[in-house]
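Input record (one chain):
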Amino acid sequence: MLYERFVEVGRLCMVNYGEEAGRLVVIVEVIDQNRALCSGVGFGPGASFKRTVENYKRLALTDFKVKVPVNAKERTVKAAVKKEGLEAAWNKTAWAKKAAKRTAKKAMNDFDRHKAMVTKIKKAAKVRAQMK
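The corresponding structure, as predicted from the sequence alone:
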């Protein structure tokens, strides 16, 4: 099994545990074998992420990497992310689409859930009719 995603400066990650779960961050500095200094990316769920130290166990590494110097400032990271067009590339991934669906479902009110249920029932009836 070959690894293609490494913990390195400039790697885009998603926080997968804790208060900041679901936020996108960029690794700015590798502190030791367990922790990294992370900064927000300026778009999506990580737009308001404060610069913090995160444990590797709380980070899910993505395929994307940005060229930033070690210990770069927040505005430098955001400028590099914008220059590389990372937001558009991220939004095309299945991971981002799944997260968007999850947040949309979380934001639904009672009537929206009812409409979705009715639509699902009608679709299932059509499928059953086709299968018979």
